[in-house]
Amino acid sequence: MHQKAKWSLSCLLALLSMLAGSVLPGRADESEKEPVPQVAHIRLARILPEESAAAGLFGARTTTLRTFLDRFNKASKDDRIKGVVLELDVSLLPLTHAQELRAAITRLQRVGKPVVAVLPAMATTNTYVAVAGCDRIVMPPDGWLLLTGVRFEVWFYRDLLDWLGIKARFLQAGAYKGAAEPYMRSAMSPEYRAQLERVADDLFRQICTAVAGRLNCSLDQAAKLVDKGGFLAKEALELGLVDELGYADRLGQTAARALGLPKVSLVKDYGVQKRRMPSGFAGVMQMMQSLFGGAPKRSLPSDRPRIALIYATGAIVEGKSTQSILLGKLMGDETIVQAIRKAEADDQVRAIVLRVDSPGGSATASEHIYQTLRQCKKPVIVSMGSVAASGGYYISLGGDVILAEPATLTGSIGVVGGKLAVRPALAKIGIRPDVVQRGRNADFLSVIEPLDEDGEKILRTLITSTYDQFLDRVSKSRGIDRERLEKLAEGRIWTGSQAVENGLVDRIGTLHEALELARQKGGIKPDEPYDLVVLPEPKNFFEMLMELTEAGGATPRLSGLVAAELPESLRPLLTDIQTLRRVFESRNPGVWLVMPHLIRY
Predict the structure, then answer these.
(1) What pTM did the predictor assign?
(2) Which of 32, 174, 322, 519 pairs with 131 at a CA distance of 20 to 30 A?
(3) CATH level 3 topology of 304-418+465-594
């Protein structure tokens, strides 16, 4: 009996061994199967600012155009990622941002990673330009595609000022320098209209080129399609403008079809840094630090080279930069100069990238920034954003190399100056100023009296001198003789593409390409890691609130309160008024290097 039990046990063990031998290899094969390919999901839900305005709660930074595009660059180097799904929940994009995004998409495709774009329910021209080069474009079955072209809008205040009793008198150097026309006229001058038509022609060509590239058709055929305007989703599919109709809730299936794979793993919100909400006493202290002391400073390894990225954004004024929560940024020369000198003094900083997005402003402040850049002993690469015109172009001349987007608005080499006189307006509300004056021209800076003949002579001298200085800076920096420069100047505005052709800009390039060029100029090897130092450092929330009450009494507070009640379309007007106020308060009032702020396209 004992022997039989022993034999039975041996048989059972042998049977289990056989079963294990037949099952375990199968399990091993299962584990050796390749993992499901990963696809990065990147979502764009709003228009992104050039720079982070302020440190948010718990040290969080606002997502900027650069940090958003960094997610594409990360995906291009991530071996796990086989492709990208770009979900667009924004209908309107600046054309330059669309071109930056398209360049980031192209970089991914160059390393063999396809990109699928999912359009919003209503996609507009610039949004489509951004994704026209994608491997596959998807839109909702009930969506609209609006290819409507280019439109410039310039708002004119002459009739409003006349009704209020405010007299505007401005002089300009350059027949095309139309910055003051909105205050002096009720419609565009022939010269101003001619230059905007020239710029619109080039921007329209850029849009048609993107459409033609998608459909593999001629520019004329693309232009006829754009002229048609709006397309229902079904029609867009039939024309080949999109490849598929579907909704964003099926992104994984869409990506799998695009890659020709049965299944993919979608990495939602790829590249977004997840932040934990702090709690307890330490959390409260961290919140207080971010509110009143800014975000904790990140320590950078001392042995790594650095590139300084300096944001020069907003209208240019004298003094410190200010940031209004509602009205946006004004660029102060003191703040930018301090940032340049800080970067130059840092031994680890090898090169500087100056990101310019500015319509100009104070001539004195522009010259201050320009001179500081010229004296900088480190390579300076200028990267132009949507607008780098007039004073924005002036400061760009301080760089060693200038890059622009095809749709950048730049140039506007000219000067305008003058003032608004409000005596009749004050009389309408029962205010009658009385004055005591010594000196014929003591009223030159007064906002009560209009410019008289003597005042105009003084202003004409200032404007002529400033314009001559502007031409001199361009001629020497760009190597353009004065005779040819006159045909490019006089306030003419150019697109980035046109500026490259006429020599005002060196080359077409994105911010990413400007940083790569800075790496080369700074002697940083292609495979050598470096740190990016962003300047000026963003202000904390408390500092932004304080700027509404500093240096100007009630006016900033009042304008901020009014802006909260204004329709979105009218807020740019209040921004113009705020900028005018700062220029009038400058040390060299009335002389501007500025283009009209209310150009929209």
Answers:
(1) 0.84
(2) 519
(3) 2-enoyl-CoA Hydratase; Chain A, domain 1 (3.90.226)
